[in-house]
Design a protein that fits this description.
The chain has about 220 residues and is mostly helical. The chain is built from eight helices and no strands. GO terms for molecular function: channel activity.
Length: about 220
């Protein structure tokens, strides 16, 4: 793997978190306490950002921007295992930098931790399994049947999953960690992060067992 690929993963994940956190701050500021409106704005902005970064950086690094996706590709034999840890590290670093950049843009304290306490419980943990499995479903289904639609599929899926999952679809360990360092609309309490990540990883292994069979090329 090249430095250009690692930088693409870093940059793409940073822009993803700028989309998530920045739009969350703007939405909360402009919605006057209307949580539904704020969530709608947050979801649309995140979906648009995903379409943009996957389209532009996909040819460079594969546009994972997500340790769960990197692990899933490695399990399929489509990403070298020696590059998994470096990809994950630059994704996490990019996510945190994206959060800090969002804080600076909106004139907020750069260093924060989240006080958001409601992102926990078995229902939300199960939600993260569904959210992550669904993300892998559209990625690998898109690659199998119509690869050029993957950026749109991922953007549309996450936009919708913000609304139909109780956890608002983190579906990404790097995003989950980075969102622990913002006490804004998008935040998650640091102590609640490990269970979200565990559920996301469980979803990867469920997906590996089911999606490879489902989307196996015909003989």
């Amino acid at each position: 793997m090249s430095a250009r690929q690692y930088f693409a993963e870093f940059l793409g994940t940073a822009f993803l978190l700028i989309g998530v956190v920045g739009s969350g701050i703007m939405a909360q500021t402009l919605s006057d306490g209307n949580i539904a409106l704020a969530l709608l704005a947050n979801a649309i902005a995140t979906g648009c950002m995903l379409y943009a970064i996957i389209t532009t950086l996909g040819p460079v690094s594969g546009a994972h921007f997500n340790p769960a996706v990197t692990l899933a590709f490695a399990l399929r034999g489509e990403h070298p295992w020696r590059a998994v840890a470096p990809y994950v590290l630059v994704q996490i670093a990019g996510g945190v930098i994206g959060v800090w950049a969002s804080h600076y843009m909106f004139d907020l304290p750069i260093l924060q931790t989240s006080g958001t306490l409601h992102r926990t419980g078995s229902h939300q943990w199960f939600s993260e399994i569904i959210a992550t499995l669904g993300l892998l479903f559209v990625i690998f289904g898109g690659i199998r049947h119509k690869p050029d639609t993957v950026p749109a599929l991922v953007g549309l899926y996450i936009t919708g999953a913000y609304w139909y999952t109780s956890s608002t679809s983190f579906a990404n360990p790097a995003v989950t960690i980075a969102r622990g360092f913002t006490d804004t609309f998008a935040g998650i309490y640091l102590a609640h992060i490990p269970m979200f990540i565990l559920m996301q990883i469980i979803a990867v292994f469920i997906g590996h067992l089911t999606l490879n069979w489902l989307f196996k090329p015909e003989e």
